[in-house]
UniProtKB/TrEMBL annotation:
It comes from Pomatostomus ruficeps. Keywords: Carbohydrate metabolism, Glycoprotein, Golgi apparatus, Membrane, Signal-anchor, Transferase, Transmembrane, Transmembrane helix. This is Carbohydrate sulfotransferase. GO terms for biological process: carbohydrate biosynthetic process; dermatan sulfate proteoglycan metabolic process. Its EC number is 2.8.2.-. Belongs to the sulfotransferase 2 family. It holds the Pfam family Sulfotransfer_2. InterPro entries: Carb_sulfotrans_8-10, Sulfotransferase. GO terms for cellular component: Golgi membrane. Its main location: Golgi. It is found in: Golgi apparatus membrane.
Length: 165
C-alpha cells in the first residue's frame, strides 16, 4: 500500500477506502492457536499473577471479554475473521507443514528459511500439560471457558481442544 505508516498504526485509523485498498494489496495471514493452549502459555509466561492455574483462569473469566488481556482474549474479537478475508489461516501445531506451503506459494525457498520446528513434540507436550491443568478446573470454570471461547471454537478447527466438549 502506497501510504507510509508505522507499526503503531491500527487498521481502524484509516478510512474505509484506505482499508479496502490495503486489505486488497496485502497477503493476509492469520495464525491461530487453541484457546486453551493460549491460556497455558500465558500462565507459564507469568503474565497472570495467580499462584495456581485455576485462580488464573478465574481471573481471565472475571476480566470478561472487554477488560481482558490480548494474551487471552478470543481470537475472533482480535482478528475479525468475519470481516477480513484472510488468504491463509495457519494453525499452531502444524506450522512446519503450513509455513512451507505458504512460503512456496509466495515463491520463496521454503526449506532454507524455516527454523527447525518440532510440531509433534509440541503437540504431545501440550496434550499432557493440558490434561494436568484442565483437571485443576472446576466443572463451572470449564463450562464458562467453553462459553467464553465459543466463537473461536466455532470459527477455527480445534477439534481436539479440551474446551470443545
Amino acid at each position: 500500500y502506497h501510504r507510509q505508516h508505522t507499526e503503531e498504526m491500527r487498521l481502524s485509523k484509516f478510512n474505509q477506502t484506505e482499508i479496502k485498498a490495503m486489505l486488497g494489496s496485502y497477503t493476509k495471514v492469520l495464525f491461530v492457536r487453541d484457546p486453551f493452549h493460549r491460556l497455558i502459555a500465558t500462565f507459564l509466561q507469568g503474565m497472570g499473577m495467580s499462584p495456581s492455574f485455576s485462580s488464573f483462569i478465574q481471573e481471565v473469566l472475571d476480566s470478561g471479554m472487554h477488560n481482558g488481556s490480548v494474551a487471552w482474549k478470543p481470537l475472533v474479537s482480535l482478528c475479525r475473521p468475519c470481516l477480513i478475508q484472510y488468504d491463509y489461516v495457519l494453525k499452531f501445531g502444524f506450522l512446519r507443514q503450513e509455513l512451507g506451503h505458504l512460503l512456496r506459494q509466495a515463491g520463496l525457498p521454503a526449506g532454507s528459511l524455516l527454523p527447525e520446528l518440532t510440531d509433534t513434540q509440541v503437540q504431545s507436550t501440550y496434550r499432557w500439560l493440558s490434561e494436568q491443568l484442565f483437571s485443576e478446573l472446576s466443572a463451572q470454570q470449564k463450562k464458562q471457558l467453553s462459553h467464553f471461547y465459543r466463537w473461536d471454537l466455532a470459527a477455527f478447527p480445534f477439534s481436539s481442544s479440551f474446551l470443545s466438549d
